[in-house]
Amino acid sequence: DPERRKAQALGAEVVGWRFVSHNIIEHQTSEKSSLHGAQYSEAHILLVYDRAHETPVVNVFFVMFIVVVLSWMSFLMPPTSISDRLGVTLTMVLTAVALKYVASESLPQLTHLTYIDTYVLGGFVNLAFSAVMQTVVPRLHGDFRDDLTGDPDKYYDIQLTDHVILALCALHWF
User: Fold this and answer.
1) Adjacent-strand bridge partners of 39
2) Average pLDDT per run of 10 along the chain, which is 174 residues long?
């Protein structure tokens, strides 16, 4: 890449940024503008960079998407396994916290929310909603125990509710 070689020659490589172009303007100062009445050489250098956005897209967006989608797999587990379902979801929450920490270390510190911040926060909302619903939905269907042998309709009602909540989570995320 000729532009990269130019950046290397200028000593202007910056990690996380792509060197786009440069412009060097050379001229002589006038004797009138000099304090000592002498003429000096000046060079004005303009370096243009572009942020390399591929790394955050892969490292944050794609990974957070996978974490949230994997948390939805807990809705496919039997509704009687509340602790197992919450275990999967809370593991994904911890994974998302680690991802947020790594992302905040590798991205520039800004005073406003970026699109990446909003996306990650949306993922946290989705994970929290999933965890709450996995705990609350069985309670909404009455006295819920680990065995549903007495009322099979209750089991199917909970599964239907789970599928509706899963659909809402997916719609929220996309």
Assistant:
1) none
2) 63 69 82 80 82 75 89 80 87 92 79 84 88 76 53 59 70 63
Residue 150 has φ and ψ, to the nearest 5°, of: -75, -35
Question: pTM for the full model?
Answer: 0.62
| Rounded Cα distance, 140 and 158, in Å | 9
21: helix, strand or coil: strand
Would you tell me how many other CB atoms lie within 10 Å of the CB of residue 165? Answer: 19
Distance separating alpha carbons of residues 153 and 78, to the nearest angstrom: 14
Tokens matching residue 93: 């929450």
- Considering only CA atoms, give the Rg of the chain: 28
Cβ partners under 8 Å of residue 88, min gap 6: 70, 71, 73, 74, 77
- Sorted by sequence, the CB contacts under 8 Å of residue 60 that are 6+ apart come out as 99, 103, 116, 119, 120
Q: How far is CA 27 from CA 10, 23, 39, 40, 56, in A?
A: 19, 13, 10, 9, 41
Alpha helices in 2-114 (DSSP H): 2-10, 54-56, 63-72, 82-106
